[in-house]
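call fold(seq) -> tokens
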Amino acid sequence: MNDWLVALVVVLAMAASTLGGWPLTAGVLRLAQRSADAGPPGEGAASATEGTSSEAVDGDDGPAGARARAVLRGGTWIGLLERAAVTGAVLVGYPAAVAFVVAVKGLGRYPELREHPVASERFVIGTLASLLWAGAVGVLGAALVR
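ret:
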């Protein structure tokens, strides 16, 4: 394959991975929020005080809840970088680097996850959705290049 075509495939794969994974991961997190096993509204949350509507409490729990998003701040940028690293590793033929990405992300988030268990579900679901997307795009890009 021509060098220009290889470069084009790599650039398109990286763009599809980083930017396409964003709405996909957000969608998976929304689906997880609506799942039957997400728990009853308000579970794991602080008790609703007088004057707080149940809708406000409902929206705060689960993987797509406001509390989980607040704890895992910077997740959008971390996700973009994670997907770029995973897709790049697969494209260059070094998929073992994915383990480094997962380790760095897990160790970096450990203090927040330990302190705020409500965010751990969001972390796991978001990371797995993101990794699967980035890996699939990387495999597809590598297959096109070879």
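Residues 3-145 form one domain.
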